[in-house]
Specification:
The protein is α/β, with parallel strands linked by helices. It has helices at 2-22, 66-79, 122-131, 171-180, 215-225, 270-280, 294-306, 329-344, and strands at residues 28-38, 47-51, 56-58, 83-88, 105-113, 137-143, 153-155, 185-188, 193-198, 205-209, 228-232, 244-247, 261-265, 287-290, 316-317, 365-366. The strands form 3 sheets. Strands 12-11-10-13-14-15 form a 6-stranded parallel sheet, with helices on both faces.
Length: 370
């Protein structure tokens, strides 16, 4: 569940940043994984914020690189300059940091000292980007022609944002490439300039139609993942919990549900679930989960079809959840969340040991923008 964990981590980093800022601006540096080749525990975009007194939030690996990262972060703080570190775990060298992890990959981490006064420091930019996840981030992590822009982090909106690259490459061609990207990638402009184009993950919106006892384990898992939760229920029928939006059925605007949302019908009433399914037929949801046995789901769909309402079968997941052998409410909640994650990641949810392709997409570089 990398997306959910990453957003939760980013929010924690921002909170830690505000804490350091309030402590009379305790100096700190932001470490960001900007390049990965081969296997690694964390992917590009993983971050940790390190203070000069040795505290930190976030992570860039499974624990094997953090110790050295603390030293390099302090170096950047002391010198007041960006620092790019390369960790090569493909070599069986006992002196190579991180080799004990056995990931067999190359990881590059950019360390940026934080200037609390500037509203263009990388954490301030990150704070704004959280509110506008549709606007990609760009970080310059190699710039030999223009060393003054090394570490430059900004939100990419239009051609004007790329003016600093004039004379290095065709910014018009680069803009065309940026505008066609829908996910994070490394860009190797030439032998002297490299960029990290980053699309921040967005939390999944989950709508729970129900208020029975089995909703509570599901709420706990969703809250831990930092997903956006809305319960469709009469407010007096469900226990109020922090971070959960409760909407009465009559106040739900079905047209406000985007394709990036998942709905779960779990009222334990066939009639109620069927009425809700009738409403959701007007939506463009990627995931509609139906609690209960397969015969119950088929009955609802058949009756809707007889009344002239057909739902795209690719939207329907009933019985809901992955086949984990779940029996208790907690186990069922786990299987439901795992299935939603698999669907939104375009995965089948099988055993990783049987996967032929790499677990994570390998870093790809794009060349020649002249």
């Amino acid at each position: 569940m990398e997306i959910a964990i990453e957003m939760k981590e980013i929010n924690k980093i921002v909170t830690f940043y505000e804490k350091l800022k309030s402590e009379q601006n305790v100096a700190c540096a932001l470490a960001t994984v900007v390049y990965v080749e081969g296997s690694s525990y964390r992917r590009t975009g993983a971050r940790m914020l390190v203070s000069e007194d040795g505290r930190w939030e976030g992570g860039i690996s499974g624990g094997c690189l953090e110790g050295d990262a603390l030293k390099k972060a302090r170096f950047s703080i002391l010198k007041g300059i960006p620092n790019l570190a390369k960790y090569d775990t493909t070599k069986g060298d006992d002196h190579q940091i991180g080799v004990g992890l056995g990931c067999n990959g190359i990881i590059e981490v950019l360390f940026l000292p934080i200037d609390f006064i500037s509203n263009q420091n990388p954490v301030e930019v990150l704070k704004r980007a959280i509110l506008e996840p549709e606007i990609p981030l760009i970080t310059v992590f190699k710039s030999e022609h223009k060393p003054e822009v090394l570490g430059k982090t900004f939100q990419y909106r239009n051609l004007e944002d790329l003016k600093f690259l004039e004379g290095i490459c065709s910014i018009v061609n680069l803009q065309k490439e940026f505008d066609s990207l829908g996910k994070s990638k490394n860009l190797h402009i030439d032998n002297h300039t490299r960029l990290f184009f980053e699309v921040l993950p967005t939390a999944v919106d989950v709508y729970l139609f129900g208020n029975q006892y089995d909703i509570y384990p599901l709420l706990e898992i969703l809250k831990w993942l930092n997903w956006n939760i809305t319960v469709i229920s009469e407010p007096n029928k469900i226990e109020h919990k922090t971070g959960i939006n409760i909407i009465s059925p009559e106040n739900l605007d079905i047209h406000s549900l985007s394709k990036s949302a998942a709905a779960i019908l779990m009222s334990h009433s066939l009639k109620t679930d069927q009425n809700n399914l009738r409403l959701l037929a007007k939506s463009n949801l990627k995931y509609i989960g139906l609690l209960g046995p397969k015969i119950r789901s088929l009955k609802m769909l058949d009756e809707l079809k007889e009344s002239g309402i057909e739902i795209n079968p690719n939207q329907i997941f009933g019985p809901i959840g992955l086949d984990l052998g779940a029996t208790t409410p907690e186990e069922i909640a786990l299987s439901i969340v795992a299935e939603i994650k698999a669907v939104f990641s375009d995965r089948k949810g099988g055993f990783l040991k049987e996967r032929i392709l790499p677990i994570n997409e390998r870093t790809q570089e794009i060349f020649n923008f002249n």
